[in-house]
Amino acid sequence: MTSSEIKAIEIAIQKIKDFEDLSKRVQSFLYEDKGQLDKGFVTKYVEHYRNLYPAWNTKHAIHRNFGFYEPKNIDIY
Asked: Whose CB among 12, 26, 36, 67 lies 3.0–4.6 Å from 76's, allowing a Cys bridge?
């Protein structure tokens, strides 16, 4: 590999790592909670979704298993 290819890979790795940091993708008022009475949008949405769709944990299990959830024989692909 050339030095420019190595540098390009290093930049790509850093950009991918930056996506893990929510503050680099989303404005802070959407996810920061300022207390029990002033919750961020993401927290409010998650709470609403959990109340509206009781199968919240099943959805997460499907995502964790890349679309397959054996206990309920779910395969979204």
From this structure: 67
- Contact (Cβ atoms closer than 8 angstroms) between residue 75 and residue 68: yes
SS (H, E, C) 8-67: HHHHHHHHHHHHHCHHHCCCHHHHCCCCCCCCCHHHHHHHHHHHHCCCHHHHHHHHHCCC
User: Which single residue is written with the structure tokens 């099943």?
Assistant: 58
The distance in angstroms from the start CA to the end CA of the chain is 37
**pLDDT tens sequence across 13-58:** 888 887 777 666 777 666 677 766 677 777 777 777 777 766 767 7
**For residue 53, what are its two tokens?**
């769709």
